[in-house]
Write a structure and sequence with these properties.
The chain is mostly helical. It is built from 16 helices and no strands. The N and C termini lie far apart (about 70 Å).
Length: about 350
């Protein structure tokens, strides 16, 4: 007879404790390293990198990873449950009032940039012969919000760990370069320096990571930084409607995932949860102290999940992907730089 009540809960926790300790420790280390580095990069990048380093180091002496068997249940829990919980709590960063505050030019620029980047990503990715999962991860990360978008998309399309690692790597590469290029453009181009609102919308609608937007925006002044952050938050909000579409349209999903969907399983409740938290914050307001707590838990959960995915990543499989993921990410970044600027300039001049 199956156990129930406290005994079942204790067994549940005991089965997952080892894996959660490992993933949580790597995630905590990633958070600390991210705060100490002179360049502002997402802790999710460090969590993935540390997980990859540890996992592939262990594979050199233990190819079957038998020493990690005790952590499997906890790692699986981190990759699925903690990841979803982290995305839901991320919604506390959003309010509809902030989104509407950027005005029609910012709203339309964001929509156009996201849609054009996704369309180009899927078209070029299929031309290059990449897998649907990898195309979806790179396109979503480039179009919306970098590592966080990759992390949120993975459980919907059931992407392989090495595809997640490749997507994180190429998206972060482009996003890191953008943090340095945008302030240089602001200083070098008089039209941008004379129009902080244009530069803010341009930065927020085209830089990959939220952390990158904050870093680049602050380097260009408070007016640019505030506009860029609000514009970026709209892109972050667009992640959840896109994830819902991914699921119901079967984009980027394996046949097994589609069969599961037909049976009514795997509904992306975490996407609806994100929208629900954002709605509560918009209508009733979430206190600053609670927002801070949600942000802390969200960051910890996402870092732990990415650490667990990193541990599962086999670098041999990543290398087998070759140059094509980098080519796709660079092409999408070129689209962000060029089309994003043209569209932001046109809409601000028009509206």
């Amino acid at each position: 007879m199956a156990e129930s009540g406290p005994a079942a809960l204790a067994g549940f926790a005991q089965d997952r404790a080892a894996g959660l300790v490992v993933a949580g420790t790597i995630g905590f280390a990633a958070e600390k390293v991210a705060t100490c580095m002179p360049v502002s990069l997402s802790p999710l990048l460090y969590a993935t990198a540390f997980g990859i380093a540890l996992g592939n180091g262990l594979r050199l002496v233990d190819p079957e990873m038998t020493s990690m068997q005790a952590t499997q249940a906890g790692m699986s829990f981190a990759k699925r449950r903690l990841l979803r919980a982290g995305i839901i709590l991320y919604g506390a960063k959003i309010t509809f009032a902030k989104i509407l505050g950027i005005g029609l030019p910012g709203l339309l620029t964001d929509l156009y940039v996201v849609l054009s980047t996704l369309l180009l990503g899927f078209s070029l990715g299929r031309f290059l012969g990449l897998s649907e999962g990898l195309i979806t991860l790179i396109s979503t990360g480039s179009a919306i919000c970098g590592c966080s978008a990759v992390a949120a998309t993975q459980p919907v399309i059931n992407a392989e760990a090495h595809e997640v690692a490749a997507a994180v790597g190429v998206v972060v590469l482009c996003g890191t370069l953008a943090m340095f290029i945008y302030p240089a453009l602001f200083r070098a181009i008089p039209a941008l320096a004379a129009n902080p609102r244009l530069m803010g919308i341009y930065t927020g609608s085209t830089v990959h990571e939220l952390a990158g937007v904050v870093a680049a925006g602050n380097a260009m002044g408070s007016e640019v930084a505030s506009t860029a952050l609000i514009t970026k938050l709209l892109r972050v909000f667009l992640l959840e409607p896109w994830i819902i579409l991914l699921f119901y349209l079967g984009i980027g999903q394996s046949r097994a995932s589609l069969d599961s969907a037909k049976k009514g399983k795997g509904v992306p409740w975490f996407a609806f949860g994100f929208i629900g938290v954002a709605t509560i914050n918009s209508v009733w307001g979430i206190s600053p102290s609670l927002q801070k707590m949600f942000a802390t838990f969200s960051a910890a959960f996402l870092a732990s999940a990415m650490a667990a995915l990193g541990l599962d990543t086999d670098l041999v499989k990543v290398r087998s992907l070759g140059w094509k993921p980098i080519a796709l990410a660079m092409a999408l970044w070129a689209n962000l730089l060029g089309v994003g600027f043209v569209m932001a300039s046109f809409l601000i001049g028009l509206l």
